[in-house]
Amino acid sequence: MEIIITKYGGLLIKAMGQTLLLALYGLFFACIVGLIFGLMSVIKNKLCNIIAQVFVFVIRGVPMIVLAFFIYFGVPYFLNTIIGVGKQMTLTALQAGTICLTLNCGAYMAEIIRAGIQSVDIGQMEAGRSLGLSYGKTMRKIVMPQAIRTMIPSIINQFIITLKDTSILSVIGFPELVNSAKNVQANTFLSFQTWAVVGVMYLVVITILSYAAKLMERRMNRGR
Fold this sequence. Notes:
single chain; about 220 residues; mainly alpha; MetI-like fold; about 0% strand
């Protein structure tokens, strides 16, 4: 255990930083994707509703490891071989990992946003429209501020899930914590000690995030 901490501690901490960075990238873009498809699922347009439902159904129905391989290997092959783009295209592990997390997390974010909007009483929308506000302005000024209060704890929980999901991206070579731990294990042959340290690192970070989610939820409940 001591050799893991003293000799490879810096490497594992750096890898945890990469893990958090990837999770933040994924969550940031997932919020944008989730907002788009979440709004598409609640507006009164059947085509938009169907598109949003298909996106959520397909992405949530595909295992993340399959999605990671498809984006990292399949998309460049499709663009280079089948479509025949002029320049040979490749994706870095960070780019592919970010896209993978964005799509996967975005599908769940879309459902979080849809549920948050639908949790606001429909009378709020009707009141805004009766005052002469457009649908978009009513959604932006009245409905969304109320919906966000209920969505924030779920968004933080989704970030925790996304953080843990980054471990799957070790299969495409991204230097996150699990991938780095594999290298440490290969160099030291200390399986139990290596994975015990990694488990504790994940536990500490996730405990902090979970506490932050609960604290934020309590503050919002007091403010109601």
